[in-house]
Amino acid sequence: MIVVKVAIPSNMPGGLEAGISPHFGRCEIFTVVEIENDKIVKASTVENRGTHFGFGSTPAEILASSGVDAVLAQGMGPKAIQLFAQNGIAVYMTSTKIVREAVHELIEDKAKLASLEDACKEAKELAQAPPPMPLFGPRMGGGMGMRRGIGRGMGMGRGMGMGMGPCPPMVPSAQYPPQQTSNPTAPPTGLFKVGVANQGRGGLDDVVSSIFGRAPSFTIVEIEGKKIKNVKVLPNQLLSSPSGVGIAAAQMLANEGVRYILAGRLGPNASAVANQFGMQAITVPPGTKVRDAINQYVLSSR
Where are the extended beta strands (E) located within 48-159? Predict the structure, then answer.
């Protein structure tokens, strides 16, 4: 059985009946709850000896070293979410006040997967809004009830390969970002990148794959002023991985600076990761030439 470990910033002395601390980085203690088969099997505490209290480690590093898979909090700034992303820990927002209630909210797929938009709003409320920086490797995916399994697997692991596990972390089934078939609603100006899942070896003359995570290759197209400035092909090194390839592929494209993903369809886990990174997933009929797909589904709306 897979055991999921979730950390909640808590008021002293911590534990299942403790109140949730509204100040994540400055909480005195974290309650760490282990969940198996949708049931709480153990609760322990981890002292917050983080940078806010003059120590050298961030809360993300502290919880990562404790083997935590996810964090539940009432709010968090973008920098904190980015640090958790680097350490392979999923972040969820809860409106509950008690640790036990928050955990049950997660088990019931009611906790909200944190987005940068949520983080920015929270940061403004707390007057702590460091400028956003690129994320590197959040590990979202899988579900508590319907799609069992939080973990670090897929060779991307914590902080790009700093640990491996049986399967990817979770995203509540209700948090499936909508698949899009239309053009982007507000395509960016200036320079941006599009990542396309390919059926073959990649390039502008290849065609769009019906699948995302196990597509043979990805074409990264850099665009400025409706003109293609650069084309890069990435062979999919994830094909032999047993699971979590959609998550890892989305992370890979995020690390390449991709703004739009074009594919026949993304699975729920990959979609959640793309959404977390601020990438827009656009579904394209499989077999469409890459060049035509970009012109029709991205550039035509500019």
Answer: 70-73, 90-93, 112-113
Shared domain for 196 and 257, answered yes or no, is: yes
Q: Is 51 exposed, middle or buried (0-12, 13-18, 19+ CB in 10 A)?
A: middle
Express each pLDDT in 270-287 by its tens digit. 888 888 888 999 999 888
Q: Which H/E stretch holds residue 247?
A: helix 245-255
Residue type, 28: E
Residue matched to tokens 């589904």: 297
- How long is the chain? 302
Helix or strand holding residue 118 (H, E): helix 116-125
What pLDDT digit, counting tens, does each position of 42-64 carry?
A: 999 998 887 667 777 888 888 88
Q: Which amino acid is at 20?
A: I
Token representation of residue 4: 């999921």
Tell me: do 147 and 215 sit in the same domain: no
